[in-house]
Write a structure and sequence with these properties.
This protein is of the alpha+beta class. It contains 18 helices and 13 strands. The chain starts with a helix and ends in a 5-residue tail after the last helix.
């Protein structure tokens, strides 16, 4: 039998070639086209474009703050401008802008100058340029700035001996040229170069005596006054607790008498030292002439810094720039917080943020642990989670009002009534302070910590919990040794977010502790060393105060950018420290995750 006969008939029919037909060949089947929208490419481009726009906005804002913040303390030349109406202005040009003059702006000009001004405006299509001159000398002119239009300028120059003087008084800067240097009321130099040389010779020692005087009044004299107040409060406490006829009251009164006698001697000694320092400093004065010819006598002790603005080399400018930055970061505010330093605000911001973090993390983590590991799913737990999410959307000023009413007026007043009765009616804890501000911001940021901690706990694989239970560990042992260490990076993420939000809040702090000016830090050598009941300064509140409450808004505007730059850098440093710790914890436990 042949091999073909063994093949089934059906397979032979399938393998046989089809019969020839005279039909036309079929067209190839059209390939189906997938729409561009189905591939997702438009959404990719849309998402990428949105990300690029967000990055450009953030980088643009940071560059604006960086440019204006870093340029605040760079010294610029001082220009002397004489206008056609005979006025003189000496100072720094801080802004230039183009504007449209009013119709009657040329009416007061002489005929020849009016014609020139009209030609100038016609060439510029009716617009002119004007400059804002920081003339300072507020104690003489009652203003800090003047606008000067270009068509009103008769003469402009850069005086060789134009001095920019920064004063410690609230009058701000003073601009003028040196006229004479006086010692004991006698002019020992009248030439500008000689006056400047004598100023450099004596200013450092005068400034050293001024700082010593400031230390005596702020620290030494304050310590004596504090001991007097403590003795007085001890007498009041003994009277309230034991009565005016008790031995305790008599002992406290005797102690107060001894303290008062000692304090009187100390005050007399300290006042003598201050008077001696003042007498030595009062010997040295400098006379200056303003742009309009007015003379002003300035004590050297009132001068923080002075420099000839039009004689500075690049190295001199760098030195002044660095000196101003160091003063800004390490000194107290002056001139109504629009000049000087912000060290009390930096200290208050850092301390409040760290204290807030120490308060919010334990409560947030414990709440998240209970909701995730212990609580059974049900309407109550769902309601709690909804409440937490809604709490995150409550305006921050509401937390400030709650903190003022609950922490200050209820808890703080109760503490005063129990522990500080002798100080009443003056409140100790019954008013805004560092502790109440930290607790208020802890309430504000606790939803962030709870949500982040829950997400971190849910990310721990269930197999780790089951393996721990299989080895005989209890639930708490599993949570403490297995779950929490591996969730710690996520918990720190929540802490970072809470720190970033809390450090930049301002509205609640205006009600529960932050003040415009508090140069004395709430820390000293008396137990408990850090007094959390005292008010404090905050960089965010300082930005608001300088930007919107300053009498010299134009001079304060650069300080707003500079303080904002410091606040951003401070938050970045705190966040980087937390991120570094989170990275170390992640490396430690990543090898054991599966």
């Amino acid at each position: 039998m042949s091999r073909a006969a063994l093949i089934p008939e059906e397979r032979r029919l399938e393998a046989a070639p089809p019969p020839a037909r005279n039909e036309p060949a079929r067209k190839p089947r059209a390939t189906s086209r997938t729409s561009l929208l189905a591939r997702g490419e438009p959404m990719v481009w849309l998402n990428g474009g949105a990300l690029a726009v967000c990055l450009c906005m953030i980088l643009g804002l940071l560059l604006l703050i960086l440019w204006n913040g870093l340029g605040t303390f760079w010294p610029v030349p001082a220009v002397l401008i004489q206008t056609v109406d005979g006025k003189h202005y000496l100072g720094e040009v801080i802004r230039t802008e183009s504007y449209l003059p009013e119709p009657g702006a040329l009416a007061g000009l002489p005929p020849d100058l009016r014609a020139k001004a009209q030609d100038y405006l016609e060439q510029n299509k009716g617009r002119s340029t004007r400059r804002l001159i920081r003339t300072d000398n507020f104690d003489l002119t009652q203003t800090h700035h003047h606008w000067v239009s270009d068509f009103k300028i008769a003469e402009e120059s850069l005086p060789e001996w134009a001095l920019i003087i920064e004063r410690a008084t609230n009058d701000g800067r003073f601009n003028g040229t040196p006229k004479a240097f006086l010692v004991d009321g006698i002019e020992i130099a009248t030439e500008p170069a000689e006056v400047w040389a004598n100023f450099n010779q004596f200013h450092s020692e005068v400034r050293e005596r001024f700082l010593r005087r400031k230390k005596i009044k702020k620290e030494d004299d304050g310590t004596v006054s504090r001991k007097e107040e403590e003795a007085r409060l001890a007498v009041t406490a003994a009277e309230l607790g034991h009565g005016p006829e008790s031995p305790e009251y008599s002992a406290a009164s005797q102690k107060m008498k001894e303290v008062n006698d000692w304090a009187a001697q100390e005050h007399a000694r300290l006042n003598g030292e201050v008077a001696s320092l003042d007498k030595q400093n009062d010997r040295y004065q400098i006379r200056l002439t303003t742009a309009d010819g007015t003379e002003k006598l300035l004590p050297l002790a009132d001068i923080v810094r002075a420099y000839p603005a039009n004689q500075l080399s690049f190295g001199d400018k760098v030195g002044i720039f660095a000196s101003r930055w160091w003063e800004f970061l390490s000194d107290d505010p002056r001139s109504g917080t629009s000049e000087g330093g912000v060290f009390p605000a930096i200290w208050g911001t850092v301390t409040m943020t760290l204290l807030m973090s120490l308060l919010v993390v334990p409560f947030g983590v414990l709440a998240a642990l209970y909701l995730r590991e212990y609580a059974k799913a049900g309407p109550v737990v769902s309601a709690v989670r909804i409440a937490i999410n809604n709490l995150a959307g409550v305006p921050s000023i509401v937390f400030g009002v709650f903190g003022l009413g609950f922490f200050c007026y209820i808890i703080g007043a109760s503490i005063d009534g129990v522990m500080f009765r002798a100080s009443l009616p003056s409140p100790t804890f019954g008013t805004g302070g560092l502790l109440w501000a930290s607790l208020t911001l802890a309430l504000l940021t606790v939803p962030v910590v709870i949500v982040a901690t829950e997400e971190a706990l849910s990310a721990v694989p269930s197999s780790m919990r089951e393996g721990s239970y299989a080895c005989g560990a209890s639930k708490w042992q599993t949570i403490r040794r297995i779950v929490l260490p591996r969730a710690m990076p996520g918990i720190l993420t929540g802490t970072i977010l809470a720190m970033a939000r809390g450090a930049g809040e301002v509205a609640p702090l205006m009600l529960v502790g932050a003040v415009k000016l508090a140069p004395n830090l709430p820390v000293d050598g008396v137990f408990p060393y850090v007094h959390a009941q005292r008010s404090f300064m905050h960089l965010g509140f300082h930005i608001y105060d300088v930007g919107f409450q300053s009498q010299d808004s134009e001079s304060a505007k650069p300080m707003v950018f500079t303080t904002t730059l410091v606040l951003i850098l401070l938050i970045a440093i705190l966040n980087l420290a937390a991120m570094w710790l989170r990275g170390r914890l992640r490396k430690r436990f990543v090898a054991s995750q599966f």
